[in-house]
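Morning, I've got a small favour to ask if you have a moment. I've dropped the whole record in just underneath, so have a look.
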Amino acid sequence: MAGEPLISIIDDDQAMRSALVRLIRSLGYVARGFASAEEFIEAGVMSGCSCVITDIQMPGMSGIHLTRLIAERQSEVPVILITARTEPGLEDVALASGAVAFFRKPIDTTAFVECLEMAIRA
């Protein structure tokens, strides 16, 4: 699958991470999961990503912090933020960090796939 878009999924929840990796692969993309933002950064794949999907709340670096870091280093890599958190204003903070989209868990799969495909094509 060399040359195919690489989609990185960062979520400390193993079940969610695995489900997203399976979904992305079922669409024909190369998907790689990471248990933390730090693991993703250490892997050195950021510049080769076509899209990053990350949870907001994780031990260590948050998804919002990671999104800001990506914007500083690789502004062309779109980031989709996901969360189970429900507090008001979180979506505004997430989008202000540089994310192209924000989804609450459980994720609407149809809307998520449409968003992912638009982000990759942009």
In short: The radius of gyration is 13 Å.
